[in-house]
UniProtKB/TrEMBL annotation:
Pfam families registered for this protein in UniProt: CtpB_N-like (PF22694), PDZ_6 (PF17820), Peptidase_S41 (PF03572)
SMART domains listed in its UniProt record: PDZ, TSPc
PANTHER family: CARBOXY-TERMINAL PROCESSING PROTEASE CTPA, TAIL-SPECIFIC PROTEASE
Gene Ontology biological process terms from the UniProt entry: proteolysis; signal transduction
NCBIfam families: prc
Protein source organism: Xaviernesmea oryzae
Disordered: annotated segments: 374-440
Identification of the protein by name: Peptidase S41
GO molecular function, one term: endopeptidase activity
Xref: Gene3D superfamilies: 2-enoyl-CoA Hydratase, Chain A, domain 1, 2.30.42.10, 3.30.750.44
Family: Belongs to the peptidase S41A family.
Length: 440
């Protein structure tokens, strides 16, 4: 079994498309200046006035937590503070099991936006779509509510209902749904055989992902003889991210050598680089990776590595463009700080922050009539306050994030199968190994 041992975790923590690094050690903090202490004194005076004179009583702990989140939200959409309860919930998601509705969410202005519903969960079954904006939870507005607070309201005991009000592009009026909570056990990897092609879908990058991928490849190889197996489709569509160590391990499963990803922060001397090890689990069979606007963070690490190293052809539409790195810093019993500390770069030295992964072969997925005008592009570059990418343009990142439930209607998947079977050709498939030599 191949594993990359690393303290790095790229994560969809509480549903946000974030790359995270769990660490209790960071560069020593500099002593605060006298000006900083003066400002903190002002904050203390304001806090005291609110506690004494505001029209309704306020809890000191709640006020301080909101103040911290206000400061962090002014930095970028992915920095935040989690109290002890929220941090525990986040860890349960990283472990691949948690309670709730199964919705991956992020902040959208002062509201909460659905990045993608997780397959076979209450949210997905109730008809929640990627791009839906949650305006109310149980009749209460979420405007201005911290992401962690909104997630906490959607989680709760199994078999209890949650009422959501959704704003959907193209819908005449808000959509009201009552969804019953359930235990969300995320199956990180799903696979099947499509005749003479192995199909593997990675739903998220949890602690179980690499093991699931290893089992999926072994199962496919057992079902289809090597001389008949045309190759693999690796489906990363609607994948909002996960553990970076798992993203590195998944990339390594298809590679023999070369840099997979590098992480670079303020201090250039502390850049981290992760390289592939020898041994391709697929025996160098052709690979096509599917991406769309719902492919973010750790999913983009994998797509970027396999694209730059010419191990796979990327097919679909432009990915989300989430290229920032968050460090998860325990704050003792008080909670956990999630702070953006770096950007990650593909093997060619390209940051996809605000630009996304551009496919080698662009294939648009048509929307069914009932969804036309109702599914908007998913994009980091559209998030208010996002960090400007080094190559970001006005067109930004992202694209539509729709995948048909039936394989026969999946134009992107069918295009990949036709290429692998030689039923159609494209200059980008297979990729040229000669062009990858300089990066390996």
């Amino acid at each position: 079994m191949r594993r990359v041992i690393s303290p790095l975790v790229a994560g969809a923590v509480i549903g946000a498309t974030a790359v995270a690094l769990f660490s209790s050690v960071m560069a020593p903090a500099k002593a605060a200046s006298s000006a900083t202490y003066k400002e903190l004194s002002v904050f203390g005076d304001v806090l005291e006035q609110v506690e004494r004179n505001y029209v309704t009583p306020q809890k000191e702990g709640d006020l301080i937590e909101k103040a911290i989140n206000g400061m962090l939200s002014s930095l970028d959409p992915h920095s935040s503070y989690m109290n002890a309860h929220d941090a525990e919930e986040a860890m349960s998601q990283i472990h691949g099991e948690f309670g709730g509705l199964g919705l991956q969410v992020a902040t959208e202005g002062k509201l909460i936006k659905v990045v993608s519903p997780i397959d076979d969960t209450p949210g997905a079954k109730a008809g929640v779509l990627a791009g839906d904006v949650i305006s109310e939870i149980d009749g209460h507005s979420v405007r201005g509510l911290a992401l962690e607070d909104a997630v906490a309201k959607m989680r709760g005991p199994v078999n209890t209902p949650v009422r959501l009000t959704l704003i959907r592009k193209g819908a005449d009026k808000p959509i009201k749904l009552t969804i019953v909570r359930d235990t969300i056990s995320v199956q990180a990897v799903k696979s099947r055989v499509e005749g003479d092609v192995g199909y593997i879908r990675i739903i998220s990058f949890t602690e179980k992902t690499y093991d699931g991928l290893e089992r999926a490849i072994a199962k496919i190889r057992n079902e289809v003889p090597a001389d008949r197996l045309k190759g693999y489709v690796l489906d990363l569509r609607l994948n909002p991210g996960g553990l970076v160590a798992q993203a590195v391990s998944v990339s390594d499963a298809f590679l023999d050598r070369g840099e997979i990803v590098s992480l670079r922060g303020r201090n250039k001397d502390e850049a981290r680089r992760y390289n592939a090890t020898s041994g391709d689990l697929t025996d160098h069979k052709p690979v096509i990776v599917l991406v769309n606007g719902g492919s973010a963070s750790a999913a983009e690490i994998v797509a970027g590595a396999l694209q730059d190293l010419k191990r796979a052809t990327i097919l679909g539409t432009r990915s989300f463009g989430k290229g920032s790195v968050q460090t998860i810093l325990p704050m003792g019993k008080a909670g956990t700080l999630r702070l953006t500390t770096a950007l990650y770069y593909t093997p060619s030295g390209t940051s996809i922050q605000g630009t996304g992964i551009a496919p080698d072969i662009t294939v648009e997925q048509p929307l069914p009539p009932e969804l036309q005008g109702r599914v908007e592009a998913q994009s980091e570059s559209r998030l208010r306050g996002h960090i400007q990418g080094q190559s970001e343009t006005e067109s930004g990142s992202g694209s539509s994030a729709y995948v048909p439930p039936e394989a026969k209607d999946d134009v992107q998947l069918q295009s990949a199968l036709q290429l692998l079977r030689g039923e159609k050709t494209d200059p980008a498939f297979p990729p040229s190994q000669e062009k990858a030599a300089a990066l390996q």
